[in-house]
Amino acid sequence: QVQLVESGGGLVQAGGSLRLSCAASGIIFSIYAISWYRQAPGKQRELVATITGRGTTNYVDSVKGRFTISRDNAKSTVYLQMASLKPEDTAVYYCSVLRAVGTTWGQGTQVTVSS
Fold first, then answer.
1. Tens digit of pLDDT per residue, the chain (115 long)?
2. Residue 59's beta-bridge partner residues?
3. Distances in Å between the alpha carbon of 55 and those of 13, 30, 58, 73, 79?
4. I need a labelling partner for 77 at 20 to 30 A (CA). Which of 22, 68, 98, 114 fits?
5. Rounded distance, CA 88 to CA 40, Å?
6. Per-residue b/e over 51-65, b at no fewer than 16 CB within 10 Å?
7. How far apart (Å, rounded) are the C-alpha atoms in residues 27 and 60?
8. 84: number of Cβ within 10 Å
9. What is the DSSP letter of 64?
């Protein structure tokens, strides 16, 4: 059974940093792209960043230059390093993996940025 577990969220002041982790189990981790999404209250879930199995990365424009996605295939873990955080980054952050059988989501981790 595929499982994704996020951690690392919390409360931080604007301008601060956080690192989120997404630990995966039940899949051949290294071959799959992993994505981070976020959902703010009253808003749709938004794709934030993706990293392919080979390490190619993509970001939504609003986080380019501030967030960095990376992966450690030996630990089956993807990270999202977030810097220069803004109040508008406040959301629940989810990691996900898309396979032929469908998308698996983690339970999410709350990030709150105070002004």
1. 899 999 999 999 999 999 999 999 998 899 999 999 999 999 999 999 999 999 999 999 999 999 999 999 999 999 999 999 999 999 999 999 999 899 999 999 999 999 9
2. 49
3. 30, 10, 10, 10, 12
4. 114
5. 9
6. beeeeeeebeeebee
7. 26
8. 13
9. T
